[in-house]
Fold:
Amino acid sequence: MLAACNPLITPEGILYVNEVFTRNGLSPVSASKSAAREYSLINRNGEPEITSKFTYNGRRPVYAVRTATGNRIVATAKHRNLIMNDFGFWVWKEQQTLRPGNYLVTSRKYATAIGQRAEMPDKELYFLGILLADGAFSENRIAVTNNDPVIKESIVSDGAALLGVEPHQYTKRSEGSLDFHFNSQEAARALYEKTGWAPGVAKDKHLGSMIRQLNTNQMRWVLQGYFDCECSIDKSGIEVTSASWKLLFEVKTALLTHFGIISNLNEMVVAAYPQNEYWRLYLYGQSARDYLAQVGFRSEIRNREADAIDPRQNQNPNVDVVRGCGPLLEALNDSSETTEQHSFAVRDYKGVNPKANPGYHKLSEILALPWAEGAPLQRLVEIAHADYFYDEVVSVEKMEPEATFDFVLPMSNTFNVANVITHASIPTQTSAVQDGIGELAPAR
Structure:
């Protein structure tokens, strides 16, 4: 059972639990009730699957699980997540029993398209990314500051087209940069209604419901605007910072959902503002190269800076690796007629606590050798084909009670929460409409 703050991966995009309930005609209250509803979520196979029931489970104590990359799942004690165990098998483990060193099975590719096309020109989506990075939102004004020629052109042309008002330009004497003000209460309100944003300060920013429901190509435009405006680049990779944890968490989720890109989110200290919370999202090694290949920059300045990324810089060898293969590789080696080449290929990975874990490329090289047919080989091929990311649990914290919710998916009993594969409610033989919930609005 999940708290409302968890993002679900659906064919319609990245939606929070409470949003899924609302768009299916159900008010996300904390009563213990259930209702028949058909809605498509993404199951453990990356495929759309139709729910048969939504359930309200009342206010219950929840546990917040945080991972090494900064992912976060909030669920009840007995909610089950899929992990990779020490022996190379995917097994279910309750939220309350997860421990640091467990590895959550995390999806990074889907067998169906995620998101929908918004009726908005791509260049205006790029401008929205700029606003997420540098925009200041008030009741009567949208303001943004930047010096990059590509970004300034987008502000002047695409911003004016989207907001329906020309920006006033001012020069910041202390910085020498241009400050653009779109002075219109009507335009600001229309933008907030369209995107799901609201007036506020930097820590209040988030992607908004419209952007979270974009398809992959349109999400690319938003991310380009955001990273063009916000990122810093060095030889190890790409980094963005924000006072909003939620914004970076949603960007992180979008990168993995749409592009399979692993990013790392953690807290940072800004010396000039020790009293404020700041967060950093960074992509290094292979993740940075994946970003350049799949998302990229429109800014010429950023593209020149990206040349500094060291092509020899690899993803941390302890991050994107295949967990739990040691015993299987040892069994495979011991059950086969081997040569020195076989022994050399697996020597660093054998045993329950190996010195290292193979990455997917290395595992493919190992499996390309001739081995004895049998259960170890079959299981290793299955693991390699799944291409999951294994995200290490770093903390499990008991929280105050929250309203909790769940879904029944009668075929697989699984769905994706922030890309983590979790277990759904078990179907029962009882009526799908219970406890006086009555007739509710039809699902959309």
